[in-house]
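Step 1: inspect the first sequence and its tokens.
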Amino acid sequence: MKIHNPYSKVRISKDILPKELLIYILVWSSAVFYAITCFANESNKYFQYYDDAYSDFTQGWSFLNRKKDVADFEWQSMKFLIKNLCLWVVLLSVVSEVLRKYSFIRILQLWQIVVTVLFIINNLGVIALLVILLQPVIFSFVLTKHSKLMIWLCNGIVLVLISMYKNFIAKEEFFIIFKLKEQAAYITIITIFWMNLRCVSYGLDLIDSKGKQDFVAFLSYCLYLPNALTGPFISYKDFVTSHKHSNNLFSRLSQLFLDVSRFLFWLFFTELCLHFIYVNATGFHPEWVESLDSWSLYGYGYTMGQFFHIKYLVIYGLATSFAKFENIKVPSLPVCIGRIHLYSDMWKYFDAGLYNFLLRYIYIPTMKNRFITSRSLSSLFCFLFVYVWHGTDNYILIWTLLNYIGVIIENCSHWFNTKYLQNSKLYESLGPKWFRRINCMTASPLLAMSAISNFYFFARIEIGNIFFSRFMNDNSWSNFVLLTILYNCCQVSTEVRRKQRNSKDKNA
């Protein structure tokens, strides 16, 4: 995986004509709106008299008099967490503010541990707590060796054990033996995966700083409640800033109120949409999905992507709102998938926390290794970690493999453009505007591949195969229309990137 943006040094052309840009925006937004409308209409007709044997729907808000799609287990689990975390996080923040003011750092660290431990016991159970605490205990012993190799070997073993545990909890007897509810088991496994990143981060940062292990500080970092169970990843170096007192309480409270209000709005907006667009229940009906016309099918695909985006915007947004209030430097939030067309940008801007982890602890160190001189090989190590960390399922393998291939193609395109095209007579004769148009034309098929790879991730293999088969076997006219629409998306995305670059240059 090429962690830094492979297009960061490519000259982005000057403004295209405003009328031309307006056409791109109108075509892209109109096509998206029409496709979503087609899918919404089809899904409403299909599920109108659906025999809901698997509880994919529930009675919606009374004033709407409609049923609501509740088929996404992750979204339901995250809503459960948000509801139950509210008072605990507020309590944590209030007491922490007092302890910071009087510089009671050790008490603050213990407080951060105690609050999370009590929350886990109260909501997930003692068994879940013991499973969650197992990783910090194991890594604390490994850290006595002060060896990065030992940390990575330990991490490999831990990830294998986590995968085995993940497969074990999928069996019915697990819930009978440990008396765990399905939702509690799911939240526990998610917490363990996030805990894994924090354990590795603390260990590697400790060795780089040549410091001594402080188990209380380590545990307070691993169990910091706002992001302990949901992410995003925050490095230990950024976390320790929460121990510093800040006097601007009113401005931080104002920002916290605005941030929380913003993400609660998106939460309720998503819930509203699930009364009309049955995007999650659709994934369990591949035979029907296969029968959809192309507009409805691609509307379903785009809706999956937007639901995934808003879901993590809400989850990460609420977590980072409180972390930011406590002076922690937080990663940027997921950007809208409707204005990204490059693989590298998707990895960089969707989950910035995971991106920072891969960059800091895998990509850069492997690039500095004298035995690894290829960026492609360093990228491969990143994608191997992503594959194992996400759970080693077949659909994860397809998703990571397609993403790796996509990034490699981008890198090759970047190398060819900078080495040959941008210094050629062809570039001089065409000019930057036509060069940008050609780039967007060639990027359109890659954007289609990027979308399909994500459909494997969102809805598993069977649904991903349907999109892949449709794209490969659809008639020429349908694919021409699709690629034309994606071309407009590439133009809009390029313009957004250009304006962001100009804004950064002005602020530099």
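Step 2: inspect the second sequence and its tokens, then contrast the two.
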Amino acid sequence: MMGTDSKVVSDQVQRVPLSESQLDFPGHPFSVSVLKAGYCLPQTNGTFRADGTITLITGPKTILVDTGGPWDRDFLLMSLKERGLEPGDVNVVVGTHGHSDHIGNLGLFQAALMIVGYDVSEGDRYRPNELADGHGYVIDEQVCVVPSPGHTGQDVSVQVKGTSAGTVLVAGDLFECCSDEDSWRDLSMNTAVQEVSRREALHTADVIIPGHGLPFRVLRN
């Protein structure tokens, strides 16, 4: 990843990476906090180590976006406890897509409304929605789950308006990290579709929280 003083310029948009001390975005009525920044680290033997970003949205509803891998269970429970929360206090859990490093702890939140890709369910009851038709799923007036396909066929992101940083997009693997200019293509199921999703995100969000890196600010010229 590029250093925090570097900028990525693309299509009249600058991406400015934030530091590890800039993981909280207070707002009214919703605030956004990155509990764990994800990573993707190539190994010398051809494998790679990866874990997805875990994000908590607090306000009138408590929303968890991506739960990390199963190996994050204890970390996730402790992070919630430090904020005075138990799994039963989480109202909505969003899995941006179905990869194991993003939805490995769904079982901790059996009482929550689950949104995984384009599926919306409570227990074994699935709700109709229009995510597959390109429409958002509104959680609150300020929080909306929006379709952002490409990395897989059913990716979603979570848009939060009204924070101190403006509109924050919890983007899953729509963006790998701030400096993923070409690397995202190697991991994309449909690069043409994802490119459209990425362009739209860069023109609507003020801060983007990627799936495998620190948040970054979006500056439009």
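Step 3: confirm your contrast with the notes below.
Confidence is low (pLDDT under 50) at residues 1-5. Residues 191-202 form the longest helix (12 residues).
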